[in-house]
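Q: Can someone sanity-check these two? First one:
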Amino acid sequence: MRSYNMSEKLQKVLARAGVGSRREMERWIEQGRMSVDGKRARIGDRIEAYQVVRVDGRVVTTGKAAGRCRVLLYHKPENEICTRSDPAGRPTVFDHLPRLRQGRWIVVGRLDINTTGLLLLTTDGELANRLMHPSTEIEREYAVRVLGKVDESALRQLQAGVSLDDGLARFETIRDQGGEGANHWYHVTLKEGRKREVRNLWQAIGVKVSRLIRVRYGPVSLPRSLRAGKWHELDRAVVARLRAAVSMGVASSRHKPFRWDGSKTQRHATRSPPGR
């Protein structure tokens, strides 16, 4: 993260430091969990580099030491959830990730429990916020298996727009990928990430989705060689493309991308280049 000489909004600084997304930071401020120089923080507060920020009483590093932008690509399997913990004891994607000495992994665009495929996680809350924000229109691509082939008029309707409970939605593109027997595959893209949007669009025209896989998020694709439940860390060149996609500059980083040596202690990683 770059150092800053001018004051910036508290939630933006904390997001960039990897404490959490901007929205999450705003909730924490409203809940009274944050203070600046010993005083309770409020929405709209701006801070400078020398000020001391605490979350739940603990000092948070917000300067250069917090500025190591790391991004993981995780192949999410079915039956894992994208929250940090679950009262029901279900497995979460965080169970498989490398531990951080500072900051935490932030999910970029959650997948529901039955959806598999590409999941990005980053230590940079500002990057996560921009990648998910509707205004950046980052394209997501999904492989969708449905029961039976859908007629052309229904496909045109999905691209023209379908009214859902949370407003009008549509696919940017739909590509027929064929299939065998009763199952048929399509690849679809869209530029927003509403909850269960892909499933709800197909359901709106009376078609049931039997399998859903996210295969691309912006410029990053799911490698064919990356098995479910495994992750790899994106190298600097790929992270730079990801940041450029949301108009962010190059992040300073002393951290070298993880390289797998095949040992059991590193069994959760592979080093396959992005591409599908």
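And here is the second, same format, sequence then tokens:
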Amino acid sequence: MLLWEMIVVALQSIRANFFRAVLTMLGIIIGVAAVISMVAIGSGAQRAITDQLDSLGGNILSVRTSSWMRRGVSVTDEKLTLSDAEAIARDVAAATAVVPETSGRIQVKFGNQNENINIVGTTPNFMDVNRYELLYGRMFTDAEIAGKKRVVVLGGGVPPMLKTDPTMLIGKSIIIKGTSFNIIGIFEEKGAVGFQNTDEHAWVPVSTAQSRLTGSDTLTAISVQIDPNVPLDIAMIDIERVMRREHQIIPGGSNDFAISDRKQFLNMQQEAAEIFSYLLAGIAGISLIVGGIGIMNIMLVTVTERTREIGIRKALGATRTNILLQFLIEAMALCIAGGLLGIALGATAATAIASAAGWSTPMSVSAVLIAFGFSAGVGLVFGLLPARKAARLDPIEALRYE
């Protein structure tokens, strides 16, 4: 038999048992679709984290107080103050900007809406260092910090919480911890960064926060933007030197503060997302193997059903190789058809998930080729045993089979 004739016969056999063929392909379809969609989702998650990294701003170190557990309670004996931030800005040559921050969740009231919002006291350069953009209004000024003015800039996610159009908020008053603040600006939404959605925060002058909201001169953190030409580890050493001097820590004494590159946490998330996507793709790949086993089982049943047909073909001159290729082509045709349908289903699923999650889920050409190639390989491997069984049938016994 010519190769083309074998392909035609294989396709006719599949068409004659179309419903069974579809059920047989189901495992391959689901496996290929799962591999493609999982890799696409993993790539989308990594891209989303990369976008978050870019939105954080470059070369930023965070200084925080270090704490430890004492009788089940987190404690610290030292605190950060504005004088620490001033010392870093003055004495750390690599620091291009220093942003003090004090924050806490505080009850906010606007009209008949009450919300618990994270209020951040900071300085005007917070916006530039952290790459925030104003949607409406303006940022507060150094003069307003010096005068402890009651002004506030809202995150882009706060207006929906207050059920008010952002254009209607500028110039209005909002009650924060019983004190009236004038809304002077609204930031554009940035999306969640790590496990925190800063769009639902509000920012006030650090002096106002300390005097009217927290009642304390302590800071939650000090963000330090480092010159891109200076390695972060060198800058860390310089900041540590200044902080140890300011906190009067004796040589050999333990630091009462911690310095970290805040991007490292998102880098860890990115690595975890990559590992998780490969894990999911591997689990999805198992379904391809299961689908291959199903094809092998059906092909074995098909060989039994078509024993007399095989006997007739051999009696008419078909060789073992002809019979082997015929059943092998039939198994591979099932897997290739299933692979093509799986690619279509995987692309559809990835697009649907991207729409629901708000991610970009790019289709990986390598994932498509690997999944499709693997499905064809499954047909070859798992179709070989039934094909060999058919090829080895004795023509006389096959003709006598009922």
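A (reply): Looked at the second one. Residues 45 and 365 are 17 Å apart (CA to CA). Residues 263-305 form the longest helix (43 residues).
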